[in-house]
Amino acid sequence: MPDSQHTHHGANHKEHKPSLDQRARSVPYKKKFIGAVFFTLLFYLGIVALITSVVAFFYVAPEFKKRSAELIVASLGFCMLSWLIAYMKRRGTLCPLCKSTPFLDNLARKHDKAYRVKPFNYGTTAVLNAAVIQRWRCMYCGTSFDLLKTKSDIK
């Protein structure tokens, strides 16, 4: 066989990052995953509302300070409530394969195929992937899951 057909795993070999497309499995109970992603995104919107109301508090005219402070308190209450609901939903959502919590980080060792977007942790990356591209990878077992794939699509 010519040398060009051999695979070379030497010093010039670049580490290949696994794609989410590779052998993505279907999710048997999608409602739990969709609910966890939905309430987590609501919490993120609450954080945006809180930051916006705090910034607005410092830039509004003095006669609107009271109304702006009320918005800060309301958005803070919404953030606390939505965080609690999102946490419970993410805690109750288990990986179909390894039964861990893929949308919440803990101190357990992460799989070699697990990845994250750098400012975020592994759980937040999984939630954002599930929201944007409907696929996520369990950080503990390394298995890729597709929310749009049905059991009949599995070959």
Which of globular, elongated, flat, extended, rod-shaped describes the shape?
A: elongated
Biggest sheet strand order reads 1-3-2
Number of strands: 3
Beta content? 5-15%
What does the radius of gyration come to? Answer: 21 Å
Q: What is the rounded distance between the termini?
A: 33 Å
- Count helical runs: 3
Q: Helix and strand succession?
A: EHHHEE
- Catalogue the unreliable spans: 1-16
Total number of distinct structural domains: 1
Helix content: 40-55%
Word description of this protein:
With about 160 residues, the chain is mostly helical. The chain has one domain (about 25-150). It contains 3 helices and 3 strands, in the order βαααββ. The chain has a 3-stranded mixed sheet with strand order 1-3-2. A hairpin with a 6-residue loop joins β2 and β3 (about 145). The longest helix has 30 residues, at about 30-60. The chain is elongated and about 60 Å long.
What's the short story on this structure?
This protein is mainly α and 155 residues long.
Topology diagram in text:
Blueprint (H helix, E strand, L loop, with lengths): L24 E2 L3 H30 L5 H28 L29 H11 L2 E3 L6 E3 L9
Parallel strand pairs: 1-3
Antiparallel strand pairs: 2-3
Considering the chains and any ligands shown, give keywords for the structure.
single chain, 3 strands, 3 helices, disordered N terminus, 3-stranded mixed beta sheet, mainly alpha, elongated, 155 residues
